Amino acid sequence: MFNAFSTMRISASGLSAERLRMDTIASNIANAQTTRNDKGEKKAYRRKIAVFQENLEKEMDKVSGKRGENFRGVKSIGIKEDNSPLRKVYDPSHPDAGDDGYVEMPNVNILNEMGDMIAASRSYEANISVINSEKSMFSKALQIGR
């Protein structure tokens, strides 16, 4: 059954998802030039991607007795690595350059990350707008009852 706060719960899950997406993008941008891992090994950073899926609640319909699904928003199922190839940059003076003079650089493209950041930001704003509209409707409904 759809109750008055379902829309807010769905938008709140969207806010949480977009925040994780923005945090992941920020991490990608921060590590766009990282050629070593946290143990100091020569291993370039791999771009990370936040993965989501719909969050469904299965329940029995009290009237029909049939099994149904209620949409409860989105949920994070993890952060995975992008397996696209690493960039090879010719820089023989770099300490991590191989014998051929090439350095394996992260597979992070700043332009793509900025585009993803804008999309995540707009999605976040849309969810805020839905919550504010819902609050306004609740307020108007309470004023009618006066």
Overview of the molecule:
- This protein has 146 residues and is an alpha+beta fold.
- The protein has 2 helices and 4 strands; from the N terminus they run αββββα.
- The chain has a two-stranded antiparallel ribbon with strand order 1-2. A two-stranded antiparallel ribbon has the order 3-4.
- A hairpin with a 6-residue loop joins strand 1 (48-60) and strand 2.
- Helix 1 (6-30) packs antiparallel against helix 2 (110-144).
- The chain is elongated.
Features:
single chain, 146 residues, alpha+beta, two-stranded antiparallel sheet, 2 helices
Oligomer: single chain
Query: Strand percentage, roughly?
Result: 15-25%
Compute the number of strand runs: 4
Tell me the distance between the termini: 28 Å
Radius of gyration, whole Å: 23 Å
Q: What is the spatial order of strands in the main beta sheet? A: 1-2
Tell me the helix content: 40-55%
Judging from the principal axes of the Cα atoms, what is the shape?
elongated
Helix- and strand-based class?
Answer: alpha+beta
The unreliable regions are none
Report the sheet with the most strands, covering strand number, pairing sense and barrel closure.
2 strands, antiparallel
Average pLDDT over all residues: 87
Order of SSEs, N→C?
HEEEEH
Q: What's the number of helices? A: 2
